[in-house]
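Dear colleague,

Thank you for sharing your sequence with our group. We've completed the structure prediction you requested, and as agreed, I am returning the results in plain text so they can be pasted directly into your records. Please verify that the sequence below matches your submission; if there's any discrepancy, let me know and we will rerun it promptly.
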Amino acid sequence: VCDPKDYHLVLQHLQKGGIPAEVRQNLALKGFCHTAHYDAAISAYLAGGKIPEILTLHPLQSLRYGENPHQKAALYGYTANSTPLGGQILQGKELSYTNLLDLDAAWKATASFEKTVVCIVKHLSPCGIACADTVETAYRLALASDPVSAFGGVIACNREVDGNAASAMVELFVECIAAPGFSSEARSIFSKKTNVRLLLMPDLKIDPPVEYRSVNRGMLKQEIDFGDPPQTEWKVISERQPTEAEWASLKFAMKACQHVKSNAIVFVQGEATVGIGGGQPNRVDCVRIAAQRAGERSKGAVMASDAFFPFPDSVEVAAEAGITAIVFPGGSIRDDESVAAANKHGMALVATGVRHFRH
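Please find the predicted structure tokens below.
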């Protein structure tokens, strides 16, 4: 008997003459799980703090349901007594299965930017990402990217939410907001929206720096994509060089692009998305979706693509929408055709050599 909570149950059965086999089996299961956690802690210590090859998960809480009401679900953590995403829920109902997925995606996106940034996510897809001098401005720019999709989504930012930002955010129906801090004025404003979950995050650290996904009869493990490796060199492969303003937008666009489901396409004005297309089986459809979302804002915008263009049609559609500069990994056997299309339309084309798929 390893859990004091079971003492009373065991005592009751002993007083009645014996412990049933079913109870003994449950106690045995608890006992071996308990010692397994000890062994996992020892192996983690001997591994120098690295995640051991034997992955131990601790049940944290049962969830109301999974993606749909007929699916059971639960939240597990790498350590016992940990909290959802390592944060603290300040108000609102318990986080749901989909809340946790969306918040994780939004938080990883915001944690990858050094400047003040806001990311809005709906169904695991960013619908707006923007950097600005204040959280309020960044939020308004991110919301403007796709206000229709933002309805009922989640918001994450990498700075404290103040009163001005809170006043702007409560105008929209959102499920959750994650941030490293909420001012007292912001807490007061959000308290009037009791259904909005506020998740206070301790820091911007993504821990551990790996991610797991279940597959039939197994698990996949990979390092998290934190952006281009340090030695990455961006090369202009078009006749025209990007302007200084286009360079700044292209760098933001590629960082935002890595958080969008492949085939990811992002249109950017300044340091704010104006159109996002992703999650489609072919890339040119994603360009069309981004252009549709952006509308007139695509004129003079830049574009980022998470992978190469298999055909020049994506460049042609981007040019028709008014895109002036593009950044992409390159590497297709038809790159010359994409370069020719960019030169024909007077566009700047930059190749990074680094792909950022997110399936």
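Summary note from our side: Residues 21-46 form the longest helix (26 residues).

Kind regards,
the structure core
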